[in-house]
Amino acid sequence: MQTKVERLYADFQYQAAFWGKERRVVAKIEWYPGELFPKVGFIVTNLPMEPDYVVRFYNQRVIAEQHIKEGKYAFRSTGLSCKPFRGNEVRLQLHDLAYNLATFLRCIELPEAMADWSLTSFQRKLIKFGARMVRHSRAITFKLAEVAVTGPMVRAILAAIHRLRAPPLCA
């Protein structure tokens, strides 16, 4: 009885009827336990690497493109509508900053209620909600409305960020 997925990789040359020349095709075959037929995928490529590396490379590329698409839709980073170039540059940098902040927050140990939030959820529940900034002589305080992000959630996020800091170097 097969208990784990068996993966096989192969490559071969192929020429479709409408192609001008032969191309390299990488095949990935996966046999899952209990399945009658394998799952087969093909990649047409010109990369000269081993077939398993080509599959990993394209899988990473797909993941990167999904992150770009998610950031594009969550923060509408393509909506650069300012006429001057400088305005669009600043706007794009703000979108990138918001994307990096949300991605950073997803990478740290978040409270359970926030663990499965998408970038759109972060944007709507954390960034888009207004806050009141109160300036004191020595500190600036942000007073957030407790709509989606409660006080304990903010404290848990700050504690997770604090745990990431390196300990101070002793002289």
Secondary-structure blueprint of this entry?
Blueprint (H helix, E strand, L loop, with lengths): L5 E9 L8 E9 L7 E7 L5 H25 L9 H23 L11 H9 L3 E5 L4 E5 L6 H14 L7
Antiparallel strand pairs: 1-2, 2-3, 4-5
Characteristics:
single chain; two-stranded antiparallel sheet; three-stranded antiparallel beta sheet; alpha+beta
Description:
The chain has 171 residues and is an alpha+beta fold. It folds into two domains: 1-46, no CATH class; 66-164, no CATH class. 42% of the residues lie in helices and 20% in strands. It is built from four helices and five strands, in the order βββαααββα. It has helices at 51-75, 85-107, 119-127, 151-164, and strands at 6-14, 23-31, 39-45, 131-135, 140-144. A three-stranded antiparallel β-sheet has the order 1-2-3, with helices on one face. α1 (51-75) packs parallel to α3 (119-127) and α2 crosses α3. The longest helix has 25 residues, at 51-75. It is elongated, with a radius of gyration of 24 Å. The mean pLDDT is 79.
The chain-level structural class is: alpha+beta
What proportion strand? 15-25%
Instruction: List the helices and strands in order.
Output: EEEHHHEEH
- Provide mean pLDDT, rounded: 79
- Give a short account of the largest sheet: 3 strands, antiparallel
